[in-house]
Amino acid sequence: MSTKILNVGIVATEHSGDLLGHSLVKTLTELGDVNLYGIGHEKLHSFGINCPNIETRYLNVMGIIDPIKNLSKILQTRKVIINFLLEKNIDVFIGVDAPDFNMGIHKVMSEHNIPTVQLVSPSVWAWRSGRIKKIKKYIDCTLCLFPFEKKFYDESNTRAIYVGHPFAEIDNHNPKESHSRYVALLPGSRDGEIKYMLPIMISFAKLLSEKYPEVHFLIPATTLSHKEHIISLCNLANLNFTCTIGNTREYLAQSPISVVTSGTATLEAACYGSSPIICYKTGSLNYSILSKLNKAPFIGLPNLILNELAFPELIQDKCTPENILRNYEELCNSERRTKNLENIKLAIQGEGFFSAASYIFSLK
Question: Whose CA is closest to 227, among 236, 237, 219?
Fold first, then answer.
């Protein structure tokens, strides 16, 4: 093993980013000794990440309006993180997802001649394509999860490495763990997602239970407060359910079909063999702004990757309990469902994290 010691600054504000950051850092530790500084969750904490003393809940907001409402707190938190990383004399900064938040950190690090890497490309191929100018200026290399992203960067003459997605390595070939009576409900990890999506999913679950009383719902929570809220609504609806903190993978592996709020979890569901019904609903003002900015043909990652509507998408006004039920029953009878799930995993197999980790060590 190399005797190099790499001081890495890393910021992963969300649980999905924490998982991706863990995969990259794990590969880095196979090449040398790594000291971690920044923001992460359970996975990055397993590496002993050294974190600044800050409140991170303001970093986990969605849409357009909530970030604006919390802008002063977000900017102050980012300033604390930047000062913390500069004090630690890091060799490289890695921003994981959260591109708008991390771009400000990339800018300052770049100005201090600290190499910068962004894991998870901003959605420049879908909206705000002008951001490629800032990416070129402040980010030394973007690590892309999907092939269409690498193609965009190549056409823009911008350094990128197609690492693929860790979900490609998921082994879901265990039929004993899958049972048709289980349905996973994934309302999301953000407070805004819980606010808008959970009541709709619970109403769908009640409709499905009335038609099929044997159905059992599996609902993972990310925090204790979310768990308590989920349990309360499920009890009011008189559902057969299990809700625990974590256990997302186990729940998806047991559920042939899942109802999932749009985001990384839709891809996770597909890779675990659970056909996702992709749902998204937010405030009317949020949606009005976002819908005008988005240029992509789909919102669900599995559909974007396959470049077809392989899995149902129910957005805003179409995201109703009745529509979810209809799509659930259609998926149950779909002959293409298994093939679509197989195609997803094949489509996200990139170079892996070794080439990216080697590149990052070369920056020191």
Answer: 219
> SS3 for 249?
helix
Whole-model pTM: value is 0.74
Q: Residue 16 in contact with residue 41, Cβ under 8 Å?
A: no
Secondary structure, 3-state, 101-125: HHHHHHHHHHHCCCCEEEECCCCCC
pLDDT digits 0-9 by tens, 15-61: 888 989 999 999 999 999 999 999 999 999 999 999 998 877 667 65
Q: How far apart are CA 90 and CA 34, in angstroms?
A: 11
Collect all residues with Cβ–Cβ distance below 8 Å to 260 and sequence separation of at least 6.
Answer: 184, 186, 266, 269, 276, 277, 278, 279
The confidence score (pLDDT) of residue 264 equals 86
Q: CA 173 → CA 126, 176, 273, 347, distances in Å?
A: 33, 9, 8, 18
CA 18/CA 301 separation, integer angstroms: 18
> At which residue do the structure tokens 């077809």 appear?
308
157 φ, ψ (degrees, to nearest 5): 55, 50
The DSSP code for 317 is G
Residues 205, 207, 208, CA angle at the centre, nearest 5°?
65
Please tell me the distance from the alpha carbon of residue 24 to that of residue 49, in angstroms, as a whole number.
14
Residue 246: its pLDDT value, please? Answer: 86
The 10s digit of each residue's pLDDT in 129-178 is: 678 899 999 999 999 998 888 988 999 999 999 999 888 888 765 444 45
Residue 49: other Cβ atoms inside 10 A: 21
The tens digit of pLDDT for each residue in 172-208 reads 654 444 567 999 999 998 888 899 999 999 999 999 9
Dist. CA 321–CA 327, nearest whole Å: 10
**How many beta carbons lie within 10 A of that of residue 320, not counting itself?**
15
Closest C-alpha to 183, from 153, 147, 207, 149 = 207
